[in-house]
Amino acid sequence: MIPSVMPTYARFDVVFERGEGPWLYAADGRRFLDFAAGIAVCSLGHCHPHLVKALQDQAAKVWHTSNLYRIAGQEKVSKRLAELTFADTMFFGNSGAEANECAIKIARRYQFDQGRPERYRIVVMTTAFHGRTLATVAAGDQAKGKYGFGPETEGFDRVAFGDLDAAKAAIGPETAAIMLEPVQGEGGMRAADFAYLRAIRKLADENDLLLIFDEVQCGVGRTGKLFAYEWSGVAPDVMSIAKGIGGGFPVGACLATERAAKAMVPGSHGSTFGGNPLAMAAADAVLDVITGEGFLDHVNEIAGVLRDALAERVKRFPDLFEEVRGLGLMAGLKCRVVNSDVVNRLFEEGLLAVPAGDNVLRFVPPLIIERDHVEAAMAILDRVCEAWRKNS
Q1: CB atoms near residue 45 (< 10 Å)
Q2: CATH level 2 (architecture), domain 16-35+294-391
Q3: Are 177 and 123 within 8 A, CB to CB?
Q4: What's the half-sphere exposure (Cβ side, CA atoms, 13 Å) at 103?
Q5: Model pLDDT for residues 30-58, shown as the tens digit of each residue
């Protein structure tokens, strides 16, 4: 008999009842060090006092009104993000998939508004992940997400991630945009070369294409800058964000330049729940903390500690790990053994991690972790590796 909760997840047998900082506490008394952060979502850890207070205060006022009316929080958060980024305007939704759907629609509408309705196709990348709607599954390159859901949504031309010549060759008379993640998460913690991102920007400009960066996972301080594109020195025309911007509350946004989004007029897009007062209170509070003095400096410092620690494990356990990947506190270990087996063994020892593509072990801890949390995580990883080696 099918359970009342549709069995679309292979869940761990644990129920968490409370959290504090980077720690989670299960109903059965177990304690876990959370280096998964809800898959890079809980940017401030669990029960951050500023975030808790912001939501409590807003919950006592108004939760939801719909987008038929002005929402003060949207106006405040959008102005903050516009001042902090390349963007002039943005649309608020509930998830990364919604943000990417909006980005895809902006690309098509932009070309349509230019009198080129035939330009609707988007150049996308191998090993990409953009969400689980029919369009974002097609834009991504995850076979498990497509299985049984054909025919695949049309309009995407895939090229090798990092291959500039392949991207050039894929551009044709029907191309509207180029879409990529500056750092691929689900695809194996692959960070794009900054020179490649600059060249892709130039390629888009030369062909009057919109450049879309998916920063759903790598954005909001995760790489040590507020957004990962900042490392390259160039900006996209459109950017999707979610995950960390809500700190655990469902928030997504699609940021765009005026040029890219000027055709997005009333009726062209919408969301019932997107950007409601509770969501905006969460996003505003997260921005308060992440843009605070010294916060990103701390992220960069602790990211270096974590990267050095992981590099040391590659040296100590070369039979288990091959290399360190990622950028900032978006770190991965390329495994020589099955990554999900490592995740399961870490779980048994009280450390939460996430598998990623290309057999990578993914660590995306809350951005508020300290050196002692890294040391505690590495002690657990060492125990697992030593036991693995002993029993193999």
Answers
A1: 23
A2: Alpha-Beta Complex (3.90)
A3: yes
A4: 39
A5: 999 999 999 999 999 999 999 999 999 99
